[in-house]
Amino acid sequence: MLVAIAGLAGLFASQAFAEDTMGTMTMMKGGQVTAIMPDGHMGTMMPDAKISAEMMKMAKPIKHCVMMITDAKGIAYMIDTSTKKAQAECEKIAM
After folding, report:
1. What does residue 45 show for φ and ψ, rounded to 5 degrees?
2. What are 47-75's pLDDT values in tens digits?
3. Taking the CA atoms of the chain, what radius of gyration do you get in angstroms?
4. Please, what is the end-to-end C-alpha distance for the chain in angstroms?
5. φ and ψ of 40, to 5 deg
6. 46 and 40 in contact (C-beta within 8 Å)?
């Protein structure tokens, strides 16, 4: 009985730890701009219609899932997801 209780406690603790290590999934709002800096910090803004229209002139649609990763020093990198295998991994993370 004690082993069963300890096992259940371990199961719940592992679930809690897994949730802590996974990011929260959010979607950008319509018109929102997200900027990612090389050191990994990010910012968002909701520009007015004029600035948004100017930014859209420079924008290109994303053709497939995009991934970023930071190293131990906090430097951000963009992962090449142009292969089918990388796209599948990216989509699995985004689900």
Report:
1. -150, 160
2. 999 999 999 999 999 989 999 999 999 99
3. 19
4. 37
5. 95, -15
6. no
